[in-house]
Structure formats: structure tokens, C-alpha cells
Model the fold of this input.
Amino acid sequence: MTTRYTEDHEWITVDGDTATVGITAYAAGQLGDVVFVELPEVGKTLSKGDEFAVVESVKAASEVYAPVDGEIVAINDDLEGEPAKVNEDPAGAGWFVKIKLSDAAQLDGLMDEAAYNAHTA
Amino acid sequence: MTDTLQKTPLHALHVELGGKMVPFAGYDMPVQYPMGIMGEHNQTRTGAGLFDVSHMGQARYEGDEKAIERLITADLEALNPGEQKYTLLLNDKGGIRDDLMVSRPWSGGGLFLVVNAATKEADFAHIEAAVAGKGKLTRLEDRALLALQGPAARDVMERLCADACRMIFMQCGVFELDGAEVFISRSGYTGEDGFEISVPAGDAERIARLLLAQPEVEPIGLGARDSLRLEAGLCLYGHDMDESRTPVEASLIWALARTRRDRGDFPGADVIARQIEEKTCQKRIGLKLAGAPAREGAEIADKDGNIIGIVTSGGFGPTVNGPVAMGYIDRGFLEPGTGVDILVRGKPRPATVVKLPFVPANFYRG
Done:
């Protein structure tokens, strides 16, 4: 499994032709306490850069963008009742969606962990 | 960018405390500290929080009080020494130029005004022009303003300035706090018991550190200030009201003194009298919903999809533990319990009109 990062602070972990997407610990820290996550419906197709989710913190709403093209095959229903999981475990239980990749080559354009850490330093 | 922003006398302290600094009304201000907005909100509801509100405009007015009274909605003859009133500065159409506190902390006379940061220049220029030759407005730019808010605020003040605890809600006076001459009122912007303390700029950091050294007190940023005032049903100028809204529409008719209303001697009195009579204008109400918070600018629709209003403040209320909003809505939908939809990113979200405040006020009334 490989994890890549976007400049907009999404992470994407790829397992075969499916990828799990969430927001980084850095992003969650910047947003503060997450109180609601609006997720897309399963089956929706996304193009890289599309706004597919909205994270609401106490203060503001922030958009989350698709890191790659693909189709939503699962969403994290647990976030509906427990949005704080995004703060508690952003890289794990706080995941947002699973996407079936249409073009795995797009991953090459994203940052690896070292590059992302440099980006947020 | 930040070098064009003004700084309050507590700026260095905010940075030292880990405040996340953002531009607000031309000042570089802490939106939150490491505790976070939720934690800071709950701290203020259960203990005590210290807010730096030095960006607000403080001024002293001396002279013919009728000259300033005719600009606002308070009855200054009925304002006794040691008392404070919430009042509105109106334009000729009855629109709200600003909301402010007017008080008499000094036994020697004169009015103490505290106005909003974003409007202070315009307010003071407007007042100065109107009172020219009759009274003198002195801007107190050499003073900072601290707000100590929360149920434990009185325990803190009992220790540091016990005399101030003899006041009840909306009283004020001059006191000594750690050797400095301070003007204190028992009021605030959170719905909690608390004190607003005007201190000389040179004493501000020392007094802030003294307050923060008390076990009950934590520093609170603008983020929690906003969620606290929203739950308390209090208006944020420029959002929940502005020059296009009158006190009738803003549900602030209680801030128009009965005597002034009877005399009709305030700006826009004809417009306001007509609105009270006709009962047709929109009014500010509270809204509760589930799920996604509704933010400022979200439209309010009836169950047939007709647009009937707009959200002017909205967010997550940590004490309510859910989204809360305020907005303007057409007559016919004002009754608490009325079901409406709020369009959040285009999606209708069911909401209910509710009585304000969302969280009962916890003022000390003696």
C-alpha cells in the first residue's frame, strides 16, 4: 500500500485499484474541532480536483477535493455520528471515502510523505 | 499583509500563549489558543475565560447629553451613575449604524461609550459632527479592554477586586485593580456572568497576566467569542444587523427606551413607528437544525421551497451540542416551533424557528 498527499492536505492510500481518502493530521489540526462532515453518495464519479466533501469545524466550512479521478465505492458512515474521529484519528478511523481509481498514473503527480512534510513545514 | 494590521497592547502576550493570529477589523487578533474553540467555549461556560477586546472603541463624552441622546435609543436621563445600557446608534432611516454600551462609571459626570472595532472610526466621526459646539468626545485610545466571563469570574474578582463583585448585571464603576485605575462593568458578550474591564494600556499586560494566573482562568480567542455570543442570541454587528436593518427587524426594540419611543425623538422614528404599527417587516429569529451547520448567507425556505429569509450568523453551538443559527425571516414564520428549510450548499436541511437565546442567560442580578 502506498500513501500519497495533495497540496490541499488530502491523503490517499492505494490498495490495488481502490484508494482510501481522508484529510491529513495537519489539516485536521488547522481546522480545529470537526463537528460535521458532508460526504458524497456512493456511485458518484469524480474528476481530480472536484470538491467531493465538506468539513465543518466550529468556526468554518472547508471543502475537500478529489486527489484523483474515480468512482466513490464507499463512504465512512461513522463520521455522521462521530465527526470528531477526523481529529482523533485522521489517517485511520477518520477516513472519508473509498474511490475506485480510473487512472492510477495520476498518483505519480502527488507528494510522498517526505515531500508533504516539507510542504507543511 | 500583517504589517498593516494594528496590534492591541496584549499582542505579544497572545503570541506567547500560542494564539493563532488572524486579521479582524483591522487588528491582528487571536482566533484561538492551543485549547481550541470548543475547549475555550466550554471553559467560559463552566469556569472563566479572559478575552482581549481592546480593538473595540472606547470614548468619554462630556457636555450636552441631549446632543448625543438624539443619535441613540437610550434614555440618558434615566441612566443613573453606576449604570450601563445597551443602545443603538441609528441612521435617518432607522437603520442600525452600530450597537454600543453607554454607561456612567464616573461620579464626576460624563458618559463612557464602548463601540464596535470595525465601526469605531465612523461612529466617533458621526457623533463628533453631531455634537459639535455642544459636547466633547474624547477617544480613550490609551486604554485596553479585557473581558472576564464565566460563572467563576466572580470568584476571581472577589480575590482581586472584591468591590466590583458588589455590582449586579449592567452596573459599572471605577475601581482599583492591582494598583491601576480601571472602569469595570458587570456585563459581557457571552450570556454568562462577567466583567468588562477598561485598563490603562501600560497596565494591560500585567493585569492580563494576573488574571490568567488565577486557577479558574484561561485565555479565549475570537472563535469561541463568536460561538458563545451566538448561543446567547446576541447580534454581531455587520452580520446580524447593519444600516439596512432597523431595531424592529433586528428584534432589538427592547433597546429603544419607552420614553424615547413615546417622544419619537430618535433618527428614523417615523420608519420605526410605521414598522411597529404595520407588523409586516421581517424579523430576526433563532433557528435550530440537525447535521450540517448553516452559515451566514444560507437562504431560508418554506416547505414549498419559497425563499422566506436568510441566515446572518450560524455555526456549531458547543453547549447546545448542535448547529444553531440566527437570521431574518418573513412574518408568518416567526412563531417558535415553525418548521422551515435552510439551504446548506443548495440542499434543504430541516430547521425549526426557536426562541432566543439558545442557552439561558446566566447574568448576576443580585
